[in-house]
Design goal:
The protein is of the alpha/beta class. It contains nine helices and five strands, in the order αβαβαααβαβααβα. The protein binds adenosine-5'-triphosphate, the ligand O=c1ccn([C@@H]2O[C@H](COP(=O)(O)O)[C@@H](O)[C@H]2O)c(=O)[nH]1 and magnesium ion (MG).
């Protein structure tokens, strides 16, 4: 089982700049390179067709750890655009989701890429992705960039199971069997991704226990800095 801690400061080894200036730098100084409306591949440095390098936050955590709930707060308070990988996929791959399995990386990355390209926004929360090292590598290969930061909601499994089984939003994967499978996959395949970003100094590990308000007060300083 993974260790639960309270709020940990990020390990921003690569930069001492504030998050606000990183967000501004991510898209403020770019010029439009094309006026074409065609979908094009991002350039090697992660620049998207509109000539903008978006500010990307990956939001990770086990099933029911509160990713979607906290993303809604971040959107409300800091104007991000929320892209839930699970929601983007759910219409397409219902059977895979019903079994708690992971959809092929190229499918997910291309959906995310399309959603970013067709948005006017410059800063995105990508909720529930990457789920595996292979997801992560595929994103890097196709998008040509890493996320700016990564949030990880750390929550004990028994609490996650309780929340999922109480969710009652009609999700096909909110049942005892699928949640067991999702937790297994999360431990085996998703935690290595969390550890990768911790080593890179990009990870903000947030204690995902307590009330929604208490958790958001741990999130707020990350974006308000
Ligand atoms: N701090 C909290 N305390 C109690 N319940 C919570 C808390 N945060 C969220 N919930 C509830 O728990 C359920 C799961 O939360 P949420 O959908 O945000 O999790 P998630 O990480 O996005 O899960 P999934 O990976 O399954 O999409 C929801 O019903 C939500 O209202
Ligand atoms: O990158 C991803 C994200 C999600 N999935 C599938 O969707 C469900 C639900 O995702 P949530 O983020 O928990 O809403 C997940 O269990 C996977 O089956 C995926 O394959 N790849
Ligand atoms: Mg969710």
């Amino acid at each position: 089982m993974w260790r639960r801690t309270t709020w940990l400061p990020p390990l921003f080894s690569s930069s001492k700049r504030s998050l606000v200036s990183q967000i501004q730098g991510a898209y403020g100084l770019r010029i439009w390179r094309t006026m074409s409306s065609e979908i094009q591949k991002p350039e090697e440095d992660g620049t998207f067709p509109r000539g903008i390098t978006p500010f990307i936050t990956f939001v990770l955590g086990g099933p029911g750890s509160g990713k979607g709930t906290q993303c809604a707060r971040i959107v409300e308070n800091f104007g991000f655009t929320h892209l839930s990988a699970g929601d983007l996929l759910s219409a397409m791959i219902l059977n895979t989701i019903k079994d708690g399995k992971i959809v092929p990386s190229e499918v997910t990355v291309k959906l995310i890429q399309k959603a970013i390209e067709s948005s006017e926004s410059h800063k995105f929360l990508i909720d529930g992705f990457p789920r595996t090292e292979e997801n992560r590598l595929t994103y890097e290969r196709i998008i040509g960039a890493e996320p700016n930061i990564v949030l990880f909601f750390d929550c004990p499994p028994e609490e996650m199971v309780k929340r999922v089984l109480n969710r009652r939003q009609g999700r096909v994967d909110d049942n005892a069997n699928t949640v067991k499978e999702r937790l297994k996959i999360f431990r085996a395949l998703s935690l290595p991704v969390v550890n990768y970003y911790a080593k890179k100094g990009k990870l903000y590990k947030i204690d995902g226990t307590g009330t929604e308000d208490e958790i958001f007060e741990r999130v707020r300083p990350i974006f308000a800095a």
